Amino acid sequence: MVKTIQWSEGKVIILDQSRLPLDVVYVECKAYEQVVDAIKNLKIRGAPAIGIAAAMGIGLAAQDIKAERFEDFVKALEPAYRSMLSARPTAVNISWALERIKKILERNRDHSISSLKKILVHEAERILLEDIEINRTIGMWGAQFINDGDCILTHCNAGSLATGGYGTATAPMLQARDQGKSFTVIADETRPVLQGARLTAWELMQEGIDVTLITDNAAGALMQKGAIDLAIVGTDRTARNGDVANKIGTYSVAVLCKEHNIPLYVTAPLSSIDFSIPSGEQIPIEERPPEEVTEIFGKCRIAPQGVRVRNIAFDVTPARMVRAIITEKGAFNPGDIKELAGHTRQIEKLRIKKEQ
Ligand code: MRU
Q: Which residues line ligand 1 (CB under 6 A)?
């Protein structure tokens, strides 16, 4: 399994995803600003992974603080919180991780500053380890939707690289493989940053999973031929009503799935569900630099100089287009996930079983 990020000897070590699959290079961050830069420039990306990076970044920021009182220590962390939060707006995992960090600090306010610094690093490492376990559980619930002989479409990268490890959308695939099921995967290349081509294809090949790469435009033609049985994607932020924000192009996949009666599953750890917003309309959608569209990785210009560009990085798929949202608590109808906030009802009753 690929190691996306880890804390080692006072540094945050990040596998530089902007250079994959050609170069496997690790970036060593000694200051939180370097973590912010890595998040902004997609050296680390994927909702759960950037949540972990933000928590580790706060761990780094804390080490340099000279404060002696709890209040001063917490105040001195604020610039780091602000930079992390503004690094990428769509994924809710950054604010989720920061909230968790703030709570752990508050709970331990009686400790010395040097012990608080250790507690922060420990908590960030816990977020990472828990994420891997959560992904395995998502895989366990999700594998039931994969049948022998299926061909699964996936979009962007919601694999190990996008998480602490094991992935979300890839987790049901890994579990199905371990259960002895035989299936194939189609990876959309995912313009403009090519997470599907560069990352998902690379990861799945390393796992020995039969993967075929297609251009984003080819998914419809394959569905028309009956070549795709189901689609599984991840999410950056899912609203309380089950609307799903994910990589640009996910909505197009959802519309195609609807037309061809193909089930679309969304894998979503609870850390990616924003129970505070009623619908997808409130999800902030990141727009990224035009050069990602007009150039091939800064090496070759492919559009006229001066052309107007909109590089919209995410879209929102309405809940009604999603067959099930697969979380670590089980698979649910999108309309039922609001019940997961604080587990207000017996969620066992709401879990959906294998597709009939
Ligand atoms: O811009 P990216 O590469 O960070 O976008 C990532 C995605 O859209 C993933 O599908 C999402 O973060 C889920 S990752 C488990």
A: 45-48, 91, 156, 158, 162-163, 168, 195, 234-236, 246-247, 313
